[in-house]
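Discrete fold record:
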Amino acid sequence: MEDEEQIKAPGLKWIKRATGRVPVWVADEVDVKNGYLPKTVNLSFLADQPEMLRAKCNALQADMVLWRTGYRADPLKFDGTFKSLLTIYEIHPRSTYRKLKPGSLRPYNHYLKNLKGHIGSVRLDETTGVDLMDWHDVWSENGRYLAAATTARAVLFAAVSFGIILRIEGCAALAAVMRETAKTLPHPKPRNQSATAEQIIAARAAAHANGRPSSALAYALCFETVLRLWDVIGQWWPMEMGGISEILDADREMKWFGLRWEDIDADLVLHYTPSKTADSSGASISYSLTKAPMVMEELRLWPAEKRIGPMIISEENGLPWRASIFAQRWTVDRKAAGLPATLWARDLRASGITEGRASGARLDDASKVAGHTASKTTEKYDRAVLEAADRFADARLKRREQSGNGSGNAR
């Protein structure tokens, strides 16, 4: 490799990092607020390719100069580059991006920004599977973060797939290349963390000790009913997204959707349509809370006059929890309960499903309870789902009784 000092290119700077000096292209715009974007581009993936490094810097500099002249292209007109495709994916009114729930929007926005900075100026029709392999090495930091690389590829594939819908030239061919290349790349191992009933009881006790009965109720609901965490605590959506809610956070211009006390009927049966299936299959779940001892124990702490609106309310501000804050409080409870650091709050649903299957519950029952069934006929009948939930719950309760832990006592 050439000496760093000998590699000259417009905007190129070598920045000192813990791992050594890395090449970074820096825009020379002085207007911080309204200047050219991106302001910096990490080019470490080209550090050992001086000619490619110079070419990349020249391309970025040319794009900035063109921007400086006042040129404004139609953002929905494809110019052949990944930056253009990713922008179309973000702003087109019919894009699948606009159907993403808030929980998915956050990582998508993160990776879209990173993809634009890394490969934005690359042309689709010049991209090969070998390029994708090289990018995978960069995104995963040579295999250290396979999940990050996999997510980056998934976001890119989503944009390419929407490009196929728009019949953008090169997208169909690139999608085929991406599918074949993915077969050659390592994938992250699936999560296998699972909590026992005893560990859930310990986490609930810790939450109570920390003055957060709302957290204890959320843990019980996720584990017993196997609802997803984001359904139990709910999701905050930007005001402009679809749907009407009377639960608002005016300061952040957000509105809330999630599990409500009204979703429990007079017989203490929980009926809920998960957000993941609400706009697709419409699959709903029904679960008799009388067969969820941990939930029943928590419910005794909630008098009738409090059973209105969102079920899980933060003791700190009286509003439903924000996901990031709830996760922080879970960490506090997890540590206090002595649970492993690898156990996440969102693992509680999988833990309940795991307990059910280990207890001998039928796979099709577990699928119905989790809302995973593909049978649209079954999904239309609450009775079929509730009967499956009863068999699923009975198997779990029997296992707990045999292990001497049937009470679900958290305190």
User: Anything to note?
Assistant: Residues 374-383 have pLDDT under 50 and may be disordered. Strands lie at 12-17, 20-26, 40-42, 235-238, 248-249, 254-257, 269-272, 285-288.
